[in-house]
Structures
1.
Amino acid sequence: MELQIITPDKTLYHGEASLVQLPGVDGLFEILKNHAPMIAALGQGKVKVVNGEQTEFHDIRGGIAEVLKNKVLVLAE
């Protein structure tokens, strides 16, 4: 699936991901390929991005995530 993590200053990540773990306001949740459409509020924490055997972490202070048609858009602070 395609993932974009965007802050007001820059793009933290833009590319493919097999798994995305996000810090929701009520706890962590994960997005996999073919996830149902959703919008979620995000809290402070780390976004975990897994693509094959590579894993990256990006710190955010909150934001919003949208999942639609195998695309995940994270608008983060």
2.
Amino acid sequence: MIYIDTSALIRTLISETASEAVDQSLNEETSVIVSPLVELEIHVQLRGWFLGGRYPRREYSSLCENFESLKSIRPFAFRMISGAVFSAALHQHQQTEIHCRSLDRLHLAAMEELGIKRLMTHDFRQADAARERGFEVLMPGLK
């Protein structure tokens, strides 16, 4: 079981550097956990790209549909989290010198709440913070 963050999951929807490596890594997993935080970030990112002119409406709609289709595709498992992740993220932040963004800290708190010890990400600061918490980090396609 592995928790996937937005920086890795977005590469399954669009062709970017390391997309193939992410896809290959996902094929080796039995369960890939997607939280509501990831859902929010994916939808915000896709809309931002649409509004910024990167994708026309048809392609934006297709990307959103492709993301939603993951809810019925193995190995993806969409899981809910509680509001307690906010307190846990704040506690994590206060207990460390390693800095990462608020949403990245929330992802790590969500992992703890869900009992997941492995993270797939393409965010180096989040990876450092995850390792400090004792999580195994996979960064497919990155060195």
3.
Amino acid sequence: MKNSFRKKPLALLLEEMKGEHRLHRVLGPVALTSLGVGAIIGTGIFVLIGVAAHDKAGPAVTLSFALAGLACVFAALCYAEFASMAPVAGSAYTYAYATLGELFAWIIGWDLILEYAVASATVAHGWSHYFQDFIGIFGYHMPALLAKAPLDFDPATGLLSSTGSMFDLPAVVITCIVTVILVKGIRESAGFNTGMVIVKVAIVLLVIVLGAMYVKPENWQPFAPFGYSGFSIFGKTVFGQTGPAGAPVGVLAGAAMIFFAYIGFDSVSTHAEEARNPQRDVPIGLMVSLVICTVLYIAVAAVITGMVPYGNINIDAPVSDAFRQVGLGWAQFIISLGAITGITSVLLVMMLSQPRVFLAMARDGLLPKSFFGAIHEKFRTPWKSTILTGLFVAVLGALLPLRLLAELVNIGTLFAFVIVCAAVLIMRRTNPEAERPFRAPLVPFVPIAGIVTCLMLMFSLPAENWIRLVVWLAIGFCIYFFYGRHHSILRKHEG
């Protein structure tokens, strides 16, 4: 067990950057900010607003977005400190390896696999609903057997029910298309990404400005029909109300659900190795993208719940359907088209990140390098793990309902943030002399606040999410102890 807590020296991380395989430093603060905004704005704003408002918080979902954003700010400051110390690829996996040891690095890497893969399936699910909403404008409809997942989750009973469908065909198709693109390789310039962000932000601003004209203040009453709390421990409500199935409801429970809307911000830290001046540019990219998206999220949530009573919000395509309900069919067309474009780019970024986590772990010997570290001779992409990711995402997106996918992603991401915040505290104590071009302010308050707020949101998720997380981690432990620790490159390096 002692060998399982071996740490990867910071000097070794920096040495690895000097080889010919180091990524090119081409991204400035504007490009990094646009990457963050581009990765964040997608399914979270176009889909999960409806689920959280309808099932968890009502119009008070605006406060849920503010609370989730605050938790992300604490985590982002901790990410920024690590990114400036070790501006290499790998994000939280690399940070954990340097501070907490190999076993914790494995846990966080395994957790990131859960985050990116299930997030991709959730995004594919949201893409399918907006695609069907878009073609419905022209009178076309998917066959009922191929329009949705065969199972749905009823929050009133806490049980799964049959929808009568076989699988969600559009989710499978878009996943396959993105997988093919990623296997063949894709070069996205910073200018192209910035253009995509401009399109998405323009549509969000259209929603806010145009929708504000149709807001009826009486739709905000009662403002918090489910209460302002919703804190629970392993599914047992401690403060606040419980839903029909015993799950917590309220502002805090809503924040735990819509936390998914923010998970893209940590992608900025994965680009630290490509930043021209990571010590300055990565913190700027993290914080500015978070602030911009939080403000936009709160404004959109206020408008949508003001346009339509929260009980009438369509949980599958809440934004475009709200405009349909007030008679703005042309706006529904623009919003649906923009949502499809925006969600496609998010799906690509998520599925691009997943194989890179596999690749980093394979290079360290924790996964079979012949498969997960395999690079295509022509396309120079991790093609085997990309195809595996595509298959996994397609199956989840085709068969599982949106509510289950969103909550499963959230608990995994929150767990990753807790570890990063804890790692800052540990690194400050164990390596106080290490160079920190960017230092998280108000330490130990900021990392402790990050740990506390993320744990609160984790506890506010239904109990079955903890069961799923434990099962996933148990599978990971089996792989690590039977394979990873015996093939660790660091273990062989240290003799």
